[in-house]
Specification:
This protein folds into two domains: 190 residues, 3-Layer(aba) Sandwich (Rossmann fold), CATH 3.40.50.2300; 147 residues, Rossmann fold, CATH 3.40.50.2300. The strands form four sheets. Strands 2-1-3-4-5 form a five-stranded parallel beta sheet, sandwiched between helices. The protein has a four-stranded parallel beta sheet with strand order 7-6-8-9, sandwiched between helices. A three-stranded antiparallel beta sheet has the order 10-13-14. The protein is α/β, with parallel strands linked by helices. The chain has twelve helices and 14 strands. Helix 8 links the parallel strand 8 and strand 9. Helix 2 runs parallel beside helix 11 and helix 8 packs across helix 9.
Amino acid sequence: MKRLILIAFFVIFSVSLYAEIKIGALFSTSGPASFLGLPEKQTLDMVVEEINKNGGINGEKIKIIFYDTKGIDGEARKKFIRLATKDRVLAVIGPTRSGSTLAIKDLAKKYKLPVISCASSNRIINPLYKEVFKVAPSDIHAVEKIYEYLLSKGMKKVAIITAQSGFGYSGRDALLKKAKEMNIHIVADEKFKDTDKDMKSQLSKIASLKPDAVICWGVGPAPAIVAKNFKELNINAQLIMSHGVASKKFIALAGNAAENIILPAGRLIVADQLPDTDPFKKMLLKYKHDYETKFNSEVSTFGGHAYDAMHILKIALENTGKNKNKIAKAIESIKGYKGTYGEFNFSEKDHNGLTKDAFVMVKIENGDWKLIHK
């Protein structure tokens, strides 16, 4: 009897000792979107290390099972199925790209596996799936912020040039939809592929129409090529980029052509320029310090997506334990969480929880970000 009791004790002790919460992560840490995915993975590793050091979640340590999607939609699907069926994770953070997230959306529903995407496209949450959330603010909010800025400067004549990708399609939809609502006149609607090496043809057509502003919507190297071509053609208009380029990598790729470009971005990249009364400043500066100290590289808003996703999932798991079927409902109940992009208020009908106030307008000056004050 004593032997059985001793064995039972060691079994219970061992289960407790090795109890863990398995969370999947899908980021593009190689390929053209690696400058987005790498800070996401680094941030997630940093946040999980801190959570585990402080006792984990309800006394259990987090184990991250990570796969690199390489920015390929098919790879994202393959790795998601593996996370769901072999690794049996409780939830997935990522993917990095909108296209990859849209590629796994049906799988999240099929396997009833909660996903907190780090991508931006509004199509991720529209139509709404119970299991699918996102922490990056929606394109529609970025567009509202851009149009408000242009209207404040008396600019109504706008040309758009958008990527033929999940992020680009969603951005184009938002640009066209909001233009009608906000009295913006779209004079040109050009497109490009992420792999294109020259956009002078599209930009020359745009230049002939003499717009007040040109809005480029894309991620990766392509928007930097647009910026270079724009400068080479000496187009007399304000060049606006999307939040998809809010990384120093874009400035490095575009070089001098990045100067004076304006874009909507999260507060994180201009945290030190925020007024001391800003409710997010203290948290943002701490994250920025911790990240830059640990990885010896500049913080980016994309890493902030992983920061927010992990903290939101932590809140949900603290309230549900390891019951996968209750996680989505728990996320929907989260209100007032102050993250790197703003205050999140989720609901059954809103799986993003942000508004246009997630963005500030930023200008690139002398190779750095400058907050545009209202």
